[in-house]
Structures are given as structure tokens and as C-alpha cells.
Amino acid sequence: MIVNRRRFAAQSIVAMAAAGLPKAFALPSRRSGPKEVLLNEAWEVSVEGQVVERGATLPHTPVSLSWHQWTPADWEKVWTYRRNFTAPANLSDRRLFLQVERALANAVVNVNGKTVTSHKGGFLPFSCEITDAVHAGTNELVIEVDARWLDVPPSGSPKGFPAVDYYLPGGLNGQVTLRDVPATTIVDVWAKPANVLSGKPSLDVMVSIDAKHAGDGVLTSTLSNGSSVIAHLAQHADLKPGTNDVSAVLGELAGIELWNPDTPHLYHLEVSFQAGPGTVETRSKQIGFRDARFELDGFYLNGKKTRLFGLNRHELFPYVGFGASPRAMRRDAEYLRHTLNCNVVRCSHYPQSTVFLNACDELGLMVWEEIPGWQYLGDTPWKDIAVQNVEEMIRRDRHHPSIIVWGTRINESANDPELYQRTRALAKQLDPTRPTSGSMTPSSRKDWQEHWHEDVFAFDDYHAAADGSVGMDAALPGVPYMNAEAVGQYSYGKAKNFLRRYRRAGIPEEQNEQAVLHAQAHDRAAKDPRNAGVIAWCGFDYASPMNAYEGVKCPGVVDTFRIPKLGASFYRAQVHPSVREVVEPSFYWDAELHASSGRGAIFSNLDELRVWLDGELVTTIHPDRENYGTLAYPPFFVDLPWEKAGFAILRIDGYKESKLRLSRSFDGSHTEDRLWGKLDEAVIDADGVDSTRISFGVSDRFDNMRPTANGTIRVQHDGAGKLIGDTEFELADSGAVGAVWVRSVAGQTGSARVTISHADLGAKLLSVMIRGRKGV
Asked: Nearest Cα to 517, choosing from 558, 569, 552, 475?
């Protein structure tokens, strides 16, 4: 293709009118744009010539998954997705493009029996033009998705699937879009804020235009804040056939508010190109203005030193793998930001859903995003795909203000100077504004002192100090430093059964210590003025073949059902009491559990806690600032007579400035236990994609979740929609909790009724209203 890189002088609307531009170049309205059709419904799925599902809806995982004990052989096949679509009767001066959001792992696209493109590697989108393969009326679209163990990142190791610390359930895991665009079409828009801290920031707008024919046109760029237009620019563009890169500058912008975790201000950029009468295409981006820098003494956001405080996240969900709904993806971001109070998340170890990233932009959750991989490095073609992943990731996501680091190295891989010089150079070419990094371990950091090329040295620090607490020390001289992982599952001394460590149905004493270890990691890292912060391991339990118990790895402070464990108590308390007051014990008060010692941790953002047993004051305690002095809200520690849990009510009263602000009670006896159930949202859309979670379990009479219970919870569904999940949960195995999702069926409205029941604890009915697509 011919590339025409030019920088055109901007002209105001008044100047353009004076120049006598023809009426054909009138500015497009905000409603102008390509015609986009989502092809998410009515897919037929087959394997080895046998149809396994008709009417499938995307995102889709072609095999049934439970919440644990997944079997890779079930999905490691070549899946054929087939459906019809209708093309316009007249495609004169129009073009059709197909965009696939995610196909794991390799994909081949056929239209009417003609192969139009193929793509290697999952997790990232690809697009192809199908104009020459379609005809007016009904057309057949076939996407073959190869979900086998292929020689593409992150797979390829001769050891097979056990070599990667997360399962890779394949399928057409993202949506498919058909775009009807003009012959001259916009293929990429990047908006790069500049001079952010100057008081008069500017916006560099770079647009790639694919022209089928030579010609000229008008490119307009409009920056707005809600209904208020901040800046508007229109300019001539003289195009040659092929790809043309056109740039513009919206300069000296007044009144711009900077994006940060507390006030994540966002702006709307609309770019339109008109190549002739009635031939207009518009693309939009949500952007933010912020300055993010790693220095030798830490991380600075908008010129202010800011500690990174976060957790890693896997995108795997029970039952659907990587095929969760947009609503479920967004809830993960909301939970990390507003319940666990993180200001940063690491997308481990692959680029994650754009829905999740959009939510991070809107919620103020900073992001480390990295290419797919886990320790293994393949041959030259494998490495070429890793380099391709860098380009696909950055081109897709560089407009997100939330992203502060590009992970351009394969997670925890051995040093490969040639490969990582390529990935870093490409990242800097595509986006010189963000630093690059990659997580390192003691084994993977060999020769890094000679061959370290990234902007930030990030270390996965899992070792323990002599007293059993965490130790954080691995900085590389002269390079900004942070911890990309810490705490984890099987470090800090020998666990009784590390595969079950921190599992909700595991050993109580080990569950008790998880939150304390996370507190120690963040506190000790903060004592090092070089350390920019910690993104600990990890947010949510996830399906894994490595060091997992029954297919689920348990280092999350939240379980795979998205229900908090004791480990979440530290994060939940790290919020100012004006937002919410918190008292979270990091132990269970339960007659059926036996603590190894009388000491327990309580996390709170209040000044003083008073501990009572059956109405009698046992002790008054204060935060341990001596040992956790860098934390905003250190833990409290208390010695309790655990033998009284069978008959005494534990009450914890939280005080701030000598005023009682919050009181919580806990019943150690099981005589008044109850069944609980909760809906995330009571209303979803009948688009065939939307879903809502129903979580449930056993609690004491004060609504505190039990870690263990006997018997089975059964789940029944009737009415609209469909149930995604198991219908029976053995409570001794699941840790006395569980969850299912209700997913809509395209076009089907009405009430979805889900009954959860237990032989001894009764039943609860929860209803979800599934509404028409426009809220009707």
C-alpha cells in the first residue's frame, strides 16, 4: 500500500467558508457514520461435521464448563461457526468490513465459500474487507476457530496445557461486527494528549484513512465535554490510493480537567471524513488528559507522587471461560475500584476486554496491559506473533487514559534481548507516551543488568523474610521499580496443602493470614522510596491446570464466583471513612472451626475498636501503626477465646473521634443459620448477551457468610432467559457459597425466576426482569 504521511494546516470554519468550499464538504452531523451491524446472534456451531448448537449467541464458549474441574480436551478442537447475513443491494462506492473481537486461538474467515483472511493468536481483534466476496441478498459467513494447543502465544510449549498457569477455553469469545463504510474509510484514530501539565494542553489527532481511489476531502475533529464543544477543526486532505496518515492539532485547550482515580474526567473526540457528496464516515473515541510517569523515586500522576495499590486480574469466569457478558466484565472493574479500593489493575497475562478497559477509564482504575504469554518463548514464528500482538494491543487500546504501562515482555519469561528490543521499539513507535515493562522473577532476571531495555523494572516478589513476613527487595539500579506480583498462594512458609491455600473451603488458619500478608506486602514496599507500588497476586480465583485444587487456583482475595474471601478484608478497609465505614475481621467466628492461636486481625478505617462477648467488653484495640506505619488504615489485632464461639455472640464496635460509627455482630453457633441469595441487577436486556449474577450461600443470623456448611444448594430456573451455571452445589466443596448467571435469550422478554433451596434452610425466589432492547 502507498502511505501518504502529511501534516495539514488547520483551518477554522469561518476561513473555510471564505475560501469557498463546495457544499459537498459541509460538516457532517454527529449522527453520521458507518453502518454497523452486530452479528452476535443465530450462529450454528459444529465440530468435525456435527452440529452441536443452533442459535448460539456471542460471546460464546462451545463447551459446557462448570465452576471447576475443566477438561481441555473438551475444547481443544476446530470449531465451525456459521451464519447468514444480508448485504446491501448496491455496493457501488461502498465497502464491507468484518471485525472479529476475539477468536481463541486461530481463526479462518470464509464468505460464500471464499477464504478472505486468517488470524493467528487469540485475545486481540482483527478486521478484514469482504466486499469482493459478497453479493446482494443472503450471504454465508463461516469462521473456523482452532482452539487446539497451537504454536501461538501463550501456548506452544511441548508440555501442553499444564505449561500455562491459566486455562484457554477457546471459541468465538467476542462479538462480530459487519461495517458498511464509504470507499474512502477511516481505519484508525489515535488521540494523543500533549503538554498536559502546562495549563493549556493540546491534542494531537492522528487518523489513518484507506482510500480506494485518489481524491480529496475534509477531515473534521471535534472535542467535546458532554454537549459542550471544546474545540473544532476542519482541514483539507489530499489522498492517494491506499493508506494515508493525516494529522491535526487541537491546541491550547482551555478548561481541561485532568483524569485521575478520584475524578476520572473523560472527553469525547469525534473524527469525520467527507470525500464527496453524502460520503461521510465518523469515528469516536473516549479520551482523557493525564500525565503518568515512573521516576527513580516512584510513580507520578499529573505531577503528584502516587503509590500504585492494586491487584492482578484474570478474565476467566465460571461456566463461560472468556465469554462473560459486558455487564459481568464491568462489574469486575467496579469491584476492584470501589469495593477493594484499588487504583491500579494488571491485566494478567493477556489483553482484556475493551468493555473492561472502558470501565477502567470511567471508574478511575489505572491499568497495566500486557501481551499474551506465560514464561514460555517459542521459535521465530511464535515470536513474530508476539510482536504482532504488541501492535494489535497498542493500536486497539492507546486511547485509554487508564493504561499507564505496556507490558511488552512475555510474563516471567527468560531474557531475550533480540525479541524484547523488537517489542519495545515497536511500542515506542506506536506510542511514545507510555513506559514499557514486563514482570521478572529470580530465574527470569538472569543477565537483566546487561540487557534490560524497558522503562520500568517490575519484579514478582514472593519470598518471605525470616520472621515469615514478606520481603520486598529487587530493584535494578538506575531504573524505576515496582512489584508486578506479590503474596500469591504457596509462599511464606510451608502450607499444609498449598493447592488449597486460601481456598474458601480450605484450612481456616491459612485463610486468616491472607489479608495480613497482603497488608505486609504493601506496607514493606512503601517503606522503600524507590518502589512505585505493588500490584499483588491476585484479585479473583481462576481456572488453572497448575498448582490448582480441582481445577481452580485460589490466590484471589475474591473467589471465582466473585464473592469476597477473608483476604479481601485488608483491601475493603483501605478507603476514607467519609466514603464508607468498614469493620472486617480476617477470621471466622465459628464453633465448627478451630484457630491455632488466639490472635486475630481485624481491618477497619476507624480509630478504635471495642470487642464484646455476650455484651461484656473484652478489650479495646487500636490500629498497629508501629508495624504497618505506611498504610493509611493498618490492621488491628486481638486475642480472642475461640472456645467461646459455640455459644457467645461476638460484637465489634467501631469508633471514630470517640463516636460509635459502626457495629457488627457475629454468631459462632449454627443454630440460627440461614440461606441467603442476592441479585446483582434485577433488570437486564433481551439482546441474548446480557446477564446478571445470582450469588447465594449460608450465613449466620447477622448475615455473615459461613466458610463451611453441610448439604446441597439446588438451583431451579423457569420463565424467560436461561440459566448459566450448575444446578447443584455441594457446600462442603464450594465453601458454603455459589453463584449462577441468568442470561437473556435474544428477543425474549419477561421474568426469569430462579429458586435456590436447601433441605434444612428452606428456599428463596429471585426474579430477573428481561426487558426489550430499548428498555421497553
From this structure: 569
Q: How many whole angstroms separate alpha carbon 342 and alpha carbon 365? A: 7
Q: Closest Cα to residue 111, out of 127, 126, 131?
A: 131
CA distance 121 to 81: 17
Return the higher-pLDDT residue of 355 and 91.
355
**CATH class (in words) of the domain with range 36-179:** mainly beta
Q: Omega of the bond prior to 154 within 30 degrees of 0, cis?
A: yes
Convert the pLDDT of each residue in 633-667 to its tens digit.
999 999 998 888 888 999 999 999 999 999 999 99
Q: What is the pLDDT of residue 501?
A: 85
Q: Is 162 helix (H, G, I), strand (E, B) or coil?
A: helix
d(CA 648, CA 720): 45
**Pairing of β 691-699 and β 737-743:** antiparallel
CATH topology of domain 4-27+183-287: Immunoglobulin-like (2.60.40)
Q: Does the pLDDT of residue 325 top 80, yes or no?
A: yes
Q: Are 739 and 725 in contact (CB under 8 A)?
A: yes
The C-alpha atoms of residue 609 and residue 655 are separated, in whole angstroms, by: 6
* 774 pLDDT more than 70: no
- Contact (Cβ atoms closer than 8 angstroms) between residue 207 and residue 395: no
Please tell me the distance from the alpha carbon of residue 626 to that of residue 238, in angstroms, as a whole number.
67
User: 313 in helix, strand or coil?
Assistant: strand
Is residue 451 pLDDT above 90, yes or no?
no
Which CATH topology does 292-572 take?
A: TIM Barrel (3.20.20)
Q: Report the pLDDT averaged over residues 468-494.
A: 76
Question: How far is Cα 403 from Cα 345, in angstroms, rounded to an integer?
Answer: 9
Q: How far apart are CA 263 and CA 734, in angstroms?
A: 38
pLDDT in tens, 398-421: 999 999 999 999 999 988 989 999
As a whole number of angstroms, the distance between CA 502 and CA 240 comes to 60
Smallest CA-to-CA distance from 700 within 672, 726, 720 is with 672
Helix, strand, coil % (nearest 5) of the chain? Answer: 15, 40, 45
Q: Which of 297, 269, 272 is nearest to 282 (CA)?
A: 272
Mean pLDDT, the chain, whole residue set: 90
One fold for both 4-27+183-287 and 674-771?
yes
Task: Write the CB contacts of 108 (distance below 8 Å, at least 6 apart in sequence).
Answer: 115, 117, 118, 143, 144, 146
Q: For 486-508, what is each residue's pLDDT tens digit?
A: 998 766 665 557 677 899 998 88
pLDDT-derived band at 25 (thresholds 50, 70, 90) equals: very low
Question: Cα–Cα distances in Å, from 85 out to 135, 178, 620, 686?
Answer: 11, 9, 69, 21
pLDDT value at residue 472: 63
Of 422, 430, 497, 485, the residue nearest 454 (C-alpha): 422
CATH topology of domain 599-667: Immunoglobulin-like (2.60.40)
> Where does 674-771 sit in CATH, by number?
2.60.40.10
Domains of the chain, residue spans: 4-27+183-287, 36-179, 292-572, 599-667, 674-771
State residue 458's pLDDT score. 92
